């Protein structure tokens, strides 16, 4: 019997039942609510442009301020947007304020890469909403903030120039600035480490808020200089040790609720610790944390024990997932795409999830993957909710509503579709597109600039990333070419299917002439958004395709070189779409 997870229910009525036409939510005032905003990746183009040669940069069409924007070409090769996050974060915070939600958790990657310009801009924005609406923010670090545990030079080579080309902008101590390979240098783009980030955002979780009823860290102090683990090289020589920061904390913002913020970053050294060089933490996560931070696990276990004893509702959040976000399909995916594809290295092992469940944490909100997913541990005693990113399809945030009278909660994910001003810089991207075409550089598809909603923008972005990144990098080359150049009918024939009997089928026949990339689009939509995905083809099509692939109708000879691999992929796509309601937009949860 599941003692905590009553049932999950897909909200068939969609977002219109969550926000009415006037933007006012229909939410009772009495229950306590906490919003989770993951993977904001804020980049402030106005702040980042300060101090640079304004003549080289594009200008805001409304204010005429210089802007430091990443190019659209850069955005279309990334799993996330870079620029429009500036607008969608404001829209999300305004929506949260309209709902009367006062507590907001930020499970990491709240900045682009921990740059001073972006961390300071985030701090100003959070201060503003805190002052105007009485909101309190609880941030914890992600692998982008910081990129490495200690500050280092930073910058990018694909910022948008005034004429539509790309230019490099880096910090003053970056190799490209020192060697004068670029004249555009600003320390606003260095990558801050823990100390600078925590100090700047100290009012938003890293230190106790004046209204917190209780606050604790694993180190028995709030002093940033003392919040670290002692890591030493194997030779155990004193000068081979470093203090590895850890900003974990637990706070009681209101009576009876404990918010456990876990700093799950693990920065493995590239050589000796004394060298001061570290890998990024993106692929480490809890698989690495189990061995790298045993003291943190012990503290989490103790916090969970005390929460039970004191009858506190413990809600944990961190940047990294605690459970399998691919619904135990990793083995099938690896057989098709290879073990290094689709960020499968980031999946917590079953042993890791079991160890985390053994700490006593039962409810955890995560980010990192830029997708929405609901997963439970093997013994059904840990629920992991992957909060969607504001910077990817489908954009949104997650809210937990706690009943004051009962030991229950509702978990809802809110989609952000309408974002004021998100098209504001589209004319600058149009100029970029024209410059690429004039320079005989392959332009991206300009139809992304025809969208009328932010939700559609993220969908168009995803479709372009599939074509620009996922297919060429992760798919078997022959299958990627087949999908790009052929129809669904031709792809099915390539598996050995005979479709003569399907000519009158209203499930398949109307869609067979469509380009097969529609199948790829729907696969990634299902992966990213679960029950909130919208598809090019109806679910009935995928049910019939899966049924067809299991019959003798699809056992004919074919000239395609990898028919079995292709068949496995089509079955995976069908299962991903048809099972997407398994990650519902609305969940009922019961605390012990």
Automatic annotation (TrEMBL):
> What Pfam families is this protein classified in?
Metallophos
- Please indicate which superkingdom the organism of origin belongs to: Bacteria
What are the entry keywords? Signal
Molecular functions (GO terms): hydrolase activity
Location of the Calcineurin-like phosphoesterase domain = 33-370
Keyword Cytoplasm applies: no
SUPFAM superfamilies for the chain: Metallo-dependent phosphatases (SSF56300)
Q: Which residues form the signal peptide?
A: 1-21
The protein depicted here goes by the name: Calcineurin-like phosphoesterase domain-containing protein
């Amino acid at each position: 019997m599941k003692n905590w997870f009553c049932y999950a229910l897909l909200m068939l009525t969609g977002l219109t039942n969550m926000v009415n036409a006037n933007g006012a939510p229909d939410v009772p005032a009495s229950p306590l609510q906490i919003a989770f905003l993951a993977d904001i990746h804020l980049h402030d183009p106005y702040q980042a442009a300060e101090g640079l040669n304004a003549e080289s940069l594009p200008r805001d069409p409304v204010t005429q301020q210089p802007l430091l924007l990443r190019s659209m070409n850069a955005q279309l090769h990334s799993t996330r947007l870079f620029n429009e996050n500036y607008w969608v974060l404001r829209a999300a915070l305004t929506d949260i304020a309209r709902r009367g939600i006062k507590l907001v958790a930020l499970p990491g990657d709240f900045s682009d890469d921990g740059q001073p310009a972006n961390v300071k801009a985030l701090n100003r924005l959070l201060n503003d909403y805190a002052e105007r609406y009485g909101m309190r923010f609880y941030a914890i670090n992600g692998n982008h903030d910081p990129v490495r545990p200690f500050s280092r030079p930073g910058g990018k080579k694909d910022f948008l120039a005034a004429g539509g080309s790309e230019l490099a902008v880096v910090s003053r101590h970056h190799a490209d600035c020192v060697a004068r390979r670029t004249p555009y240098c600003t320390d606003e783009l260095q990558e801050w480490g823990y100390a600078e980030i925590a100090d700047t955002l100290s009012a938003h979780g890293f230190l106790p808020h004046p209204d917190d009823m209780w606050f604790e860290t694993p180190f028995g102090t709030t002093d940033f200089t003392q919040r670290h683990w002692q890591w030493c090289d194997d030779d155990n020589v004193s000068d081979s040790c470093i203090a590895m920061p850890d900003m974990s904390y637990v706070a009681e913002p209101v009576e009876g609720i404990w918010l456990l913020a876990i700093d799950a970053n693990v920065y493995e050294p590239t050589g000796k610790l004394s060298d001061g060089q570290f890998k990024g933490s993106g692929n480490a996560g809890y698989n690495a944390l189990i061995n790298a931070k045993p003291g943190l696990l012990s503290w989490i276990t103790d916090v969970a024990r005390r929460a039970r004893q004191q009858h506190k509702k413990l809600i944990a959040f961190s940047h990294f997932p605690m459970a399998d976000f691919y619904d135990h399909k990793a083995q099938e995916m690896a057989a098709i795409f290879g073990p290094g594809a689709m960020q499968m290295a980031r999946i917590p092992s079953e042993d890791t999830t079991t160890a985390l469940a053994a700490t006593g944490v039962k409810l955890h909100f995560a980010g990192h993957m830029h997708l929405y997913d609901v997963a439970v541990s093997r013994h059904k005693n840990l629920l992991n909710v992957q909060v969607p990113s504001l910077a990817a399809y489908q954009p949104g945030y997650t809210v937990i509503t706690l009943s004051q009278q009962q030991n229950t909660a509702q978990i809802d994910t809110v989609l952000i579709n309408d974002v004021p001003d998100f098209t504001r810089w589209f004319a600058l991207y149009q100029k970029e597109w024209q410059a690429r075409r004039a320079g005989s550089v392959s332009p991206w598809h300009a139809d992304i600039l025809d969208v009328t909603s932010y939700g559609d923008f993220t969908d168009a972005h995803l479709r372009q990333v599939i074509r620009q990144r996922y297919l060429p990098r992760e798919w078997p080359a022959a299958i990627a070419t087949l999908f790009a150049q052929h129809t669904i009918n031709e792809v099915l024939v390539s598996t050995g299917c005979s479709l003569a009997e399907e000519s009158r089928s209203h499930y398949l026949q109307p869609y067979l002439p469509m380009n097969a990339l529609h199948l790829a689009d729907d696969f990634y939509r299902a992966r990213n958004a679960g029950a909130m995905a919208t598809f090019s083809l109806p679910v009935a099509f995928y049910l019939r395709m899966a049924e067809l692939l299991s019959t003798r109708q699809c056992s004919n000879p074919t000239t395609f070189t990898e028919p079995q691999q292709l068949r496995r992929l089509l079955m995976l796509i069908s299962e991903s779409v048809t099972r997407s309601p398994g990650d519902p937009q609305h969940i009922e949860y019961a605390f012990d």
